[in-house]
């Protein structure tokens, strides 16, 4: 009998992907499409119908690519961007375009809440932010009551996918807790949370809470015709993207940080208890609600390199000219240029603040310490280092709450670069291990699907069997000494700039 295959769907703000994997974590088929996000002013929206159609297309394409093996999909799981609001009416249709986690329309109301000392941090362990559905629902109530009153179900990005797959509404525990909808002490909904936002009537619109690897339904006939999946295929609850990436990179307990270096700098620690943390740390339930995930993050990571290549270099080839090849050749040239410069060869400092971050109250992106002899390689080296410095800042916040670790598992764009991965180890002083999987989030979801299908007894067992370690990097003593000096300068620049801007 052929070994089972599992389908992992990932609905991110950049891409919508579907990947078919087996019980040992090997990939058999993949498809992707760009997620279409409409941004205007403070609004950031996704057409929900178009997003489901996009998801169905990539599922069909990934399934067809894997179909050469002649094996059926045993179970389906999904992950999606955290935050956001996907509202559904009584007929199962979208009430309005989805609010993404980048939507800022609720910010004025949340500012008023903070000034009034209102909130429910002790219940949710979240200081409200504009990308969560609580504030977004309040904005709808205040600005479009007709739409607000039509809401039957409050869903997240992947829960909307699950709803279309199964025809049943559900909310999964990691997503709902990250959305600030769950009392983390009881691990259930709490009416006091909605009351704090002035939306108590939405209690009836919160779907049943389900586990990450729990079977929440089966592929319905309509979804089967649209996706090519067999009707009756079981579907598990899935995970929100941060937890999916951590699990898929091998972080499922408190022995290592999960560090994701993508557009966002995501730095996570898992713990089996609630601990006091600074306001910037977000806490959610971990996979299947077994523990807690503490996350420190901001948009200060590998997205800086994409910006530099797109807007500054416009492609990088040998000698810094236009690249003759595709993305692989460009990134190979970048890594070569950075590796050619030793840590102590340049004192250029890069501040990775293209987007606002709580790491600095006022700092913006900048290169400092440039001299006539510096070229593209020095700038790129400084950029790699500056991104690692920002990750270290986030990790130090976690460590201040007793959530420090001696090891980190690195995933995301930076993990594909050996020189960047080594810089992470030298800057943080941690042993850094890269995730072998190119799509760690999909692998995390596939582990939930394998557990749901009964192939493994626990999620931890599934992750242990399906996740493979990549390369290990240990801090190099001489580089550590150089980076300690550079990091102190980086922190001094932030302090001086914040002081200057505020006077």
Describe the protein.
The protein has 503 residues and is of the alpha+beta class. The chain contains 17 helices and 25 strands. A seven-stranded mixed beta sheet has the order 19-20-18-17-23-24-25, with helices on both faces. The chain has a five-stranded mixed beta sheet with strand order 3-2-1-6-16, with helices on both faces. Strand 17 and strand 18 form a beta hairpin. Residues 315-324 have low confidence and may be disordered.
Biggest sheet details: 7 strands, mixed
How many individual helices? 17
Which geometry do the CA atoms define? globular
Q: How far apart are the first and last residues' alpha carbons, in Å? A: 72 Å
Model regions low in confidence, pLDDT < 50 over at least 5 residues = 315-324
Number of strands: 25
Beta-strand share of residues: 15-25%
**Helix fraction by DSSP (H/I, runs of at least 4):** 25-40%
* Strand numbers in spatial order across the main sheet: 19-20-18-17-23-24-25
- What structural class is derived from the secondary structure elements? alpha+beta
Radius of gyration: 22 Å
Round the mean pLDDT to the nearest integer and report it: 92
